[in-house]
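Duplicate of #3305? Posting structure anyway:
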């Protein structure tokens, strides 16, 4: 169920007239007085009374789904609970409120799970706001003229903040260039994010202060034989904690390794209370015509049969159409890097129609488990040439790819060969030709207008972002790359994009792979546990032995929807009116000659090169549609009807 909340913090009794008026409009949306709290310094609003709880001295507002409930109940003690129900019946938000009453606001940094919470201590006039460890639950804030706005939704934050909506050029240019450089900045000037694993504190008359309360760090590696059993136990625990009521919690199932693993463990006996017969798992899947290259219905059917699920199959007769884009833009209210949402958002609507309130989602499995491909560069840099050859030969057998050329390319880039040796000169001669053959005229930055690119220092900013967040930056180190991938700002952006799409249909997405204990364990898996014998994510495949059909457990690939997105881009640009509007909106941002050259490349060029430009052209199209819609949103903002 979708629950939104917002707060308006005021340093004095005067000012913020427009924001106060808009808060009154929020309160008028619901008649339940329990959905709103007004204090001389702080006004709180929630779309549902379940998201706002009070004691005599404390008010707690927001969303929380706890992972460490048993630990917190033990800390709370047997004498605390709700009279007549027992502490086990205590909703998560009530449990956290009671813990704050006992331990103070620092209790907010002891909880684990997905959460975005605001705690107001009325007696000491102190506000504490916290966001979960991985940024699963979004929190936005705007500060101006003695007021502070915090909200669970970007549009809600903008509405209550009341300022005109002005696009940030740095965020727009980074979006179009395909990199993330900040975890705090949104696309709107004056509106920011509270970063993941951060806590904000504020008192009337003071400036809000934020600080990190947790940091993902590199642990010591575990012995390889321990990895698969430990992963199995940790993932099963993560799924069991999130399984919920089968009548209200389903599972997205694509037929790939990640979603299939989540579905299988959601039906495992350990996921159910003892002596309790649970309903079959309700799985939700897209299926296509059998002639489509990305149809995964055989894998989906095999998994459903293997785990005894109750499947809901959503038949896709055609790919996303140009007329689908305005609805996605309106839903997101933000720049969106995910063309797949044009279609996948339908799964949330179907789940809601089937009575679901939440969906287990395998999102993040690639990043949390790690494919381990950087191990190949590690082996080359360590001079382990025979092991590298064996790994690449295994991958060649599995994926049907050549082995000699990429093997020599790895040696050329990473091998510690003597500077003037014959071997180095020979490999260098071959490697330069391999690298030269891969040179493409589809560098993402080339799409930007030269003057805009220079004015925004896009090249320098991208280089700095790569240095800070790119897994491939620096000497080859698979475990370091794994940590950087999970810690990159793009991970938080993905959660926000998915949250908006699911929340629009009243669905809460649940991500078992982003269990804190599981993530920390996966970072302990040695590189050879992730890539071995040519098999990527080897540790997860071994961990799921017996729980998945072997054909799914050892799938070497997953569906590639690039051709579907390419079809959407071509159909969108084939319309002269849409093409004209794109040129009008992007002429000062995009080099239109490159834009149309890449359009021609998509339509007629070599498949590998045309595939490289699909995503960036889609983002250019989305940006033009977003800029066009921005005029409408500003009109709504002036009228006070944005939310």
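Output from current build:
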């Amino acid at each position: 169920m979708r629950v939104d909340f917002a707060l308006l913090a005021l340093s004095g009794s005067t000012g913020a007239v427009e924001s106060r008026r808009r808060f009154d409009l929020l309160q008028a949306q619901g008649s339940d007085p329990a959905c709103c709290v007004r204090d001389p310094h702080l006004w709180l609003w929630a779309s549902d009374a379940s998201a706002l709880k009070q004691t005599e001295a404390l008010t707690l507002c927001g969303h929380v789904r706890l992972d460490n409930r048993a630990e917190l109940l033990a800390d709370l003690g047997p004498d605390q609970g709700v009279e007549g129900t027992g502490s086990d019946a205590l909703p998560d938000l009530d449990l956290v409120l009671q813990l704050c009453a006992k331990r103070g606001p620092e209790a907010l940094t002891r909880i684990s799970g997905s959460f975005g919470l605001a705690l107001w201590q009325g007696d000491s006039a102190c506000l504490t706001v916290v966001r979960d460890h991985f940024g699963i639950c979004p929190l936005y804030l705007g500060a101006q003229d003695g007021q502070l706005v915090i909200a669970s939704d970007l549009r809600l934050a903008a509405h209550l903040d009341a300022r005109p909506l002005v696009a940030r050029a740095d965020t727009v240019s980074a979006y179009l260039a395909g990199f993330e450089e900040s975890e705090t900045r949104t696309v709107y000037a004056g509106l920011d994010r509270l970063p993941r694993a951060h806590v904000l504190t504020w008192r009337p008359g003071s400036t809000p202060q934020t600080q990190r309360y947790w940091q993902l760090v590199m642990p010591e590696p575990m012995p390889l034989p321990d990895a698969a059993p430990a992963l199995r136990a940790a993932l099963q625990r993560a799924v069991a904690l999130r399984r919920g009521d089968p009548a209200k919690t389903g599972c997205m199932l694509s037929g790939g390794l990640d979603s299939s693993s989540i579905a299988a463990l959601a039906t495992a006996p350990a996921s159910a209370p003892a002596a309790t017969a649970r309903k079959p798992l309700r799985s939700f899947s897209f299926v296509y015509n059998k002639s489509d290259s990305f149809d995964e219905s055989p894998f989906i059917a095999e998994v459903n049969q293997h785990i005894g699920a109750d499947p809901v199959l959503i038949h896709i007769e055609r790919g996303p159409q140009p007329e689908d884009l305005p609805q996605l833009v309106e839903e997101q209210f933000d720049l969106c890097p995910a063309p797949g949402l044009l279609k996948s958002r339908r799964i949330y609507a179907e789940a809601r129609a089937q009575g679901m309130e939440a969906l287990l989602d395998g999102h993040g499995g690639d990043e949390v488990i790690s494919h381990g491909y950087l191990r190949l560069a590690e082996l080359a840099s360590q001079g382990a040439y025979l092991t590298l050859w064996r790994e690449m030969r295994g991958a060649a057998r599995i994926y049907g790819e050549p082995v000699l050329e990429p093997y020599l390319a790895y040696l050329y880039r990473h091998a510690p060969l003597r500077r003037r040796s014959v071997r180095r000169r020979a490999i260098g001669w071959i490697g330069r030709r391999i690298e030269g053959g891969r040179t493409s005229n589809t560098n993402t930055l080339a799409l930007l207008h030269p003057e805009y690119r220079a004015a925004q220092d896009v090249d320098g900013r991208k280089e700095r972002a790569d240095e800070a967040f790119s897994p491939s930056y620096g000497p080859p180190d698979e475990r370091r790359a794994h940590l950087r991938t999970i810690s990159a700002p793009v991970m938080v952006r993905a959660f926000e994009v998915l949250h908006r799409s699911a929340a629009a249909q009243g669905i809460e997405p649940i991500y078992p792979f982003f269990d804190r204990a599981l993530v920390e364990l996966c970072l302990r898996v040695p590189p050879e546990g992730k890539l071995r014998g040519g098999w990527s994510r080897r540790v997860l495949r071994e961990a799921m032995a017996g729980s998945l059909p072997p054909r799914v457990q050892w799938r070497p690939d997953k569906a590639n929807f690039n051709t579907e997105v390419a079809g959407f881009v071509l159909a969108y640009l084939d319309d002269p009116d849409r093409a004209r509007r794109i040129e009008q909106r992007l002429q000062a941002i995009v080099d239109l000659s490159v834009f149309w050259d890449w359009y021609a490349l998509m339509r007629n060029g070599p498949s590998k090169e045309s595939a490289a430009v699909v995503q960036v052209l889609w983002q250019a199209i989305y940006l033009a549609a977003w800029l066009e819609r921005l005029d409408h949103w500003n009109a709504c903002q002036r009228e006070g009807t944005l939310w």
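Confirmed duplicate; merging threads. The chain has a mean pLDDT of 91. The first helix runs from residue 17 to 28.
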